[in-house]
């Protein structure tokens, strides 16, 4: 039984964060898919009864509908919708039927809607471009815009671009008197906040008199990672700072059963140290702060509880807060009583809870596992009910493989947790050792398209969470601070050695690959050993020194992870030992990657090419750091095909043959236009 193929990307169905009607009877969720023919993402809203009495069915048919939210009175559904090549705008739809009405026309699009308690207003954030930039003046092309004068360290972000000339602010828009009216006249949104700062994560106080949001408006905000909760009246008056700490704050929320809004609940890294930048391995956990002002107080132990869900808010309902917690490759769903009672685990096991909502006492969660990118489950006291089957099209191909959980032992006795996924048959199978990015993230229980594609091609895939990863407590994540490439490298190799004890895996035919931090580890290990037949270093953190001035996070990330002592930095730098690499190595990078900038990849490629090491440089135009996860669909497909071509050349299998491997390096394996992505032909050594 083969595994997933690159073209099967079109079969992926990925549900987002659900919303639940106030009576708990109905869930609505956006489901996205890749349209490979049109080279774009499509997304529609689906509705399903939470009692499982009927299958999910499409509710909207827009080009890209997302972020649905029921109004508190249950009459309306607000959501974002984008037309082809357009930006997402706020829409409302009457639950009892009718035509959706568009409420906004922001040049750069609107953010996730948040209902007022009386269901008559919506708050959201939107970026406000400077006049004359980003197409606000049709006579001024991007190349004709005036120069940007930069005076701060924080002025750009990967996958977004420059931020200092399009700040994010809070807006409020009134629901029209007749929201079912299809007239073109739209209400005028009111801009609540302003200034040369970014405002995010807005929430209403239960009485509707104030809005809470997150911003960094303090002195020194340009050099630290501290962010605070602020409150403001909907008319823009009464702005004040609530939190008084060295924390990173996000997702403020009130208890709807407390009309006075005396406490604000939030997600936070409670303490970033004296500099406000000590973020390495720090868990983001559930916390609270007095609405009158004060310190951030954790409600869960920040040493052990790290938020891992994608819900764009802190969900407070029924006297409890709900949060997804990373744990050993899973994301569990916890219900945390506000009165200090013991947390209750609502979803655990081999699952990743990606998002959730609560209504009428029913909890609905989007849950992924190794056979589906996400399904909705309804949780009621004593019962969990599966209510969707979005993964069915891919499962029906018979081309999915189960992960096998295992634990190895590092040289110092530390346990290294991970997974092995193997093709059918006795083997011995060639092996691909993959390393995740971050480093403070985790591999785990979800459908990973890359792993499935590699298994389809005949490779056993190894994935582990070495020290430095999330999901195993702060000590696990922080131990590599200023010691990258030490214990974490030991863990990766120990996991490989333990897996290779299986006679079904071919210890003589092993490839190494990874992206971002995984690219760092790939480049580093290839400079230390020749045990790998070939490698792929993708969007790598290869040189901490040049990273400082080139990356959007360069002003703090290397200092915190590798330190500032030149000798110690060199000892942790993959580029410092790249001159020792003799292993054939493919370098993959995106041309607009501002997280690990292009020079991090091109310098490695040139170092190898000048010495005659077999190498290729695969560059993707128009893409940033998130190419493999959210890049253009055809680019994602082409990336997988080129990766398989590389492995077919150096680690051929019966299902990834030499015929495929002999495609010219510049050819498009799937019929895409030649030259996109750009490739540089490798030199094969005899």
Kindly state the number of beta strands: 40
**Share in helix:** 10-25%
| pLDDT < 50 stretches | 663-686
Instruction: Provide the gyration radius in Å.
Output: 25 Å
Q: Biggest sheet: strands, sense, closure? A: 9 strands, mixed
Q: What portion of the residues fall into strands of 2 or more residues?
A: 25-35%
Report the principal-axis shape. Answer: globular
- Overall mean pLDDT score? 93
Number of helical runs?
12
- Class from secondary-structure proportions: alpha+beta
Q: State the separation between the terminal residues, measured CA to CA.
A: 36 Å
Instruction: Strand order, main sheet: write it out.
Output: 32-33-35-34-36-37-38-39-40
Description:
With 686 residues, the chain is α+β, with helices and mostly antiparallel strands. 14% of the residues lie in helices and 32% in strands. It has 12 helices and 40 strands. The strands form 9 sheets. The chain has a 9-stranded mixed sheet with strand order 32-33-35-34-36-37-38-39-40, with helices on both faces. The protein is globular, with a radius of gyration of 25 Å. The two termini are 36 Å apart. Residues 663-686 have low confidence and may be disordered.
């Amino acid at each position: 039984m083969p595994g997933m193929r690159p073209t099967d990307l079109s079969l992926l169905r990925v549900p987002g964060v659900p919303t639940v009607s106030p009576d708990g009877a109905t869930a609505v969720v956006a489901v996205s898919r890749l349209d490979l023919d049109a080279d774009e993402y499509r997304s529609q809203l689906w509705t399903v009864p939470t009692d499982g009495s009927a299958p999910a069915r499409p509710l909207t048919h827009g080009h890209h509908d997302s972020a649905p939210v029921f109004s508190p009175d249950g009459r309306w559904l607000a959501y974002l919708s984008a037309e082809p090549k357009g930006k997402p705008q706020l829409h409302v739809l009457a639950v009892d039927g009718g035509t959706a009405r568009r409420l906004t026309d922001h040049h750069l699009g609107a953010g996730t809607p948040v209902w007022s308690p009386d269901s008559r207003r919506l708050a959201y954030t939107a970026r406000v471009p400077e006049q004359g930039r980003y197409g606000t003046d049709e006579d001024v092309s991007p190349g004709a815009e005036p120069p940007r004068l930069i005076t701060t360290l924080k002025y750009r972000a990967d996958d977004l671009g420059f931020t200092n000339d399009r700040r994010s602010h809070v807006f409020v828009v009134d629901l029209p008197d007749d929201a079912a009216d299809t007239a073109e006249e739209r209400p005028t949104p009111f801009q609540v906040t302003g200034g040369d700062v970014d405002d995010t994560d807005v929430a209403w106080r239960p009485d509707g008199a104030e809005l809470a949001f997150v911003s960094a408006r303090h002195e020194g905000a340009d050099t630290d990672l501290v962010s605070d909760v602020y409150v403001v009246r909907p008319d823009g008056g009464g702005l004040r700072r609530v939190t008084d700490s060295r924390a990173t704050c996000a997702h403020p929320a009130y208890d709807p059963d407390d009309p006075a809004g005396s406490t604000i609940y939030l997600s936070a890294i409670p303490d970033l140290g004296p500099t406000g930048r000590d973020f390495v391995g720090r868990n983001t956990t559930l916390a609270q702060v007095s609405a009158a002002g004060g310190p951030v107080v954790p409600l869960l132990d920040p040493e052990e509880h790290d938020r891992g869900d994608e819900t764009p808010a802190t969900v407070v309902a029924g006297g409890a807060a709900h949060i997804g917690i990373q744990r050993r490759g899973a994301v569990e769903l916890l219900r945390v009583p506000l009165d200090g009672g013991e947390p209750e685990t609502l979803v655990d096991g081999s699952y990743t809870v990606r998002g959730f909502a609560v209504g009428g006492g029913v909890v609905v969660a989007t849950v992924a596992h190794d056979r589906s990118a996400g399904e909705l489950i309804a949780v009621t006291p004593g019962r969990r009910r599966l209510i969707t089957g979005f993964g069915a099209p891919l499962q029906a191909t018979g081309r999915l493989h189960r992960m096998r959980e295992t634990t190895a032992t590092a040289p110092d006795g530390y346990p290294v947790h991970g997974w092995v996924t193997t093709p059918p048959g006795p083997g011995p199978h060639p092996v691909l050792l993959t390393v995740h990015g971050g480093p403070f993230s985790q591999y785990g229980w979800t459908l990973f398209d890359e792993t499935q594609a590699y298994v389809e091609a005949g490779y056993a895939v190894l994935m582990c969470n070495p020290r430095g990863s999330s999901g195993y407590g702060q000590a696990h994540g922080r131990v590599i601070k200023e010691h990258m490439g030490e214990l974490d490298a030991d863990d990766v190799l120990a996991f490989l050695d333990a897996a290779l004890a299986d006679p079904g895996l071919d210890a003589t035919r092993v490839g190494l690959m990874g992206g971002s931090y995984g690219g760092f580890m790939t480049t580093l290990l290839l400079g230390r050993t020749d045990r790998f037949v070939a490698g792929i270093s993708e969007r790598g953190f290869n040189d901490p020194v040049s990273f400082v001035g080139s990356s959007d996070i360069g002003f703090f990330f290397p200092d915190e992870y590798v330190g500032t002592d030149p000798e110690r930095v060199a000892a942790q730098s993959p580029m410092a030992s790249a001159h020792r690499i003799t292993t054939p190595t493919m370098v993959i990078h995106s041309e607009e990657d501002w997280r690990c900038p292009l020079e991090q990849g091109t310098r490695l490629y040139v170092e190898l090419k000048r010495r005659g090491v077999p190498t290729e440089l695969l560059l993707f135009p128009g893409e940033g750091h998130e190419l493999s996860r959210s890049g253009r669909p055809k680019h994602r497909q082409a990336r997988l095909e080129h990766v398989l071509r590389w492995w077919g050349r150096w680690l051929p299998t019966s299902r990834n043959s030499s015929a495929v491997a002999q495609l010219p390096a510049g050819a498009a394996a799937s019929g895409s236009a030649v030259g996109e992505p750009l490739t540089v032909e490798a030199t094969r050594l005899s």
